[in-house]
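REVIEWER CHECKLIST
Item 1: Sequence provided? yes
Item 2: Single chain? yes
Item 3: Sequence as submitted:
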Amino acid sequence: MNLMLDFGLVHYALSQKYEIGDVVRQTIYDYYKNTDKLPRDLRVAIEEAAAEGQFTQDDDYNGFNSDGKFDPEINSGELLRILENRPEIKEEAVRHYQLHQAGEFLNIKIGSIKRTLKSYNEAQGIRESFERSFGPDAMASVKPSLLIDYRDNPKQDIDLLRAYLGIVSLIGFRKFISTTKPVILSRMIGAKSKPVWEAFSKVKEARGIVERYSKRYNMDRLLLSLAERKFIMFLTRPHVSLIYVSKYMEPEQLADLVRQSQAKYNLKNKIREASQKI
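Item 4: Structure as written out by the authors:
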């Protein structure tokens, strides 16, 4: 779970835009108040600049003015020059700021940025290795709180999470999808294509999942449990393998969306057929 959390956190952080003034301000604040949180190279660069008289060490006020407001006016210009002259240190400062902002927004406490980045790089390596063999992978977007809950309460049914992540990766940004149970099972073991399925379904860790949820009763029970816990909603029709799945909503809402989609599709067909008669 930590690997997933760290990858998601850093992936989100690195996508965030930034203003260099905000980066400078955050760096100075942490230099005085949270020195241990700064990347080592960034902290050392500031300390060296201070020793050389290029950064004014404010040991009395730590960047705060007489009104108690954080306003590091002198230090801001000094640090900006340091960053402009050392691109590699600027990159460290920007990444530190992005991670700080992402952690606050996602409500994730970052214990060690160094460990978090190491974990992210490990996960990124796994992803790149997979994609070299099988092409672009599907990405699921879930709330960090869900992963944290499963991490901190390991006795929960992990298959529920596997199924939810698989279904979410199928839905993407759509309101609902039509799919089949074998496709959901495939996504549960991280397979979005036939070659991946053929490779992954033979792996010992995945074989038990495949054997269990290839059985109709077990898959039906799993989908119902997801709906009962308000993870998803699904609708089926008798004697039809296709199922309609969405993130959680009331069954009637999903039924309305399906009918609207079918009506739109039928109208397009009618227009096409009428056009051919002109």
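Item 5: Key structural point noted by reviewer: The longest helix spans residues 251-276.
Item 6: Recommendation: ____
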